[in-house]
Amino acid sequence: MYLTDEQRLVSRALSNLEPENQSAHQGPPATEEESDTRTPLQRFRTAPKRPFTVSDFAAGAWCELQHWYTLTRLPGGKKTVTVAMKGGSRVHQTLEDEIHSAVQISIASKEEAFALRLWNIIQGLRTLRDTGITREIEVWGTIEGEILNGVIDQLSHKSPNASFEKELNSPASSHPIQQSSIVDYMGSGRKTVYLTDVKTRGSDRLPTGKAVRPAKVQLYLYHRLLSDMAADKLDYSVILERYGLNGEARFSDGFMAQIGSLHDEVFYDAESEVGETPIERFSPDLIAYRSISQIIPLLKAELEETFPLGPASISNLLSVEYRHRSDGRLLGNNAFAIDEEGTDDYMKWSLQWW
């Protein structure tokens, strides 16, 4: 990627690179990123490195140059963990703990690690249907042939702003947020699903203007990814190929033993090993899901049951929920309608940078 003169100057200022050359007639030495002509996509989001995340595009919505600095200058291309970030993580973990109970699961392969991610989605969808709310739902999709991954903070059956939603869906509104009638949908006994992103702040003041833009980009993309999964448009074989996974690889007996009785729990990886369990002790239902390729049909069935009308089951009214990072108290909510055209335009612009 070629940097403009302005980008070079700012990049050097941010990273405090080489001191001024004492020889006035000599120019500054070329930095590594200046001599590397590969695109950011080739350098940072091509296998074996991780694929695109929704956060990649949200970060660009705030400050493109800052995101470039993070990718090129910080360890692992990730922001340095600050006290404020730790506070935000604690708030998110507290909210998740209100919905799910975490159980340690040991893994013996990368296929088992990915299977846990699929099981978490399945359990999350079941929790949404049973309780009306769930948190931390992972989604995947593709954009211009590249994998895009993200985790939705919250799905629920409760409208974030019922009066605003009613106003937007009134006949007088020039921007209805649903293509189909919400009244007809609710009358059928099925429930609309609403997406919410949770943000934490160190003050009681809510952000305005451009400061809200990254959260909007996140929610727009989450909505698109979830809608495609609900419509069964996601090609899971592409996801497996990108991660270098064998969909037919059999899970170990030890892994199967751990998840066999935990259908109501959320799983996460633990490094400790467990003993093997005889296959005869597994239930017939569990034996049916001994590889990723066998779990995927179950995931599709859970998506169909959760979103019976496909994307029409998902509201186009999105919301950002703000909480104080010190104690998690609710500060406010910002609800807005999805902007498909604006999302398309932004992604075209952002992909040009990548």
TrEMBL record:
PANTHER family assigned: EXONUCLEASE V
Q: What does the record give under GO molecular function?
A: 4 iron, 4 sulfur cluster binding; single-stranded DNA 5'-3' DNA exonuclease activity
Gene Ontology biological-process annotations: interstrand cross-link repair
Query: Which Pfam family, just one, is annotated for this protein?
Result: Exo5
Q: Which UniProt keywords apply?
A: 4Fe-4S, Exonuclease, Hydrolase, Iron, Iron-sulfur, Metal-binding, Nuclease
Coiled-coil annotation reads: none
Record text on subunit structure and interactions: Monomer.
Q: Which family does the record assign?
A: Belongs to the EXO5 family.
- Superkingdom, natural source: Eukaryota
Which organism's genome codes for this protein?
Answer: Xylaria bambusicola
Listed name of the protein: Uncharacterized protein
Ranges for the region named Disordered are: 12-45
Which lineage do the record's taxonomy fields give for this organism? Eukaryota, Fungi, Dikarya, Ascomycota, Pezizomycotina
**Could you state one GO cellular component term attached to this entry?**
mitochondrion
What cofactors are annotated for this protein? [4Fe-4S] cluster
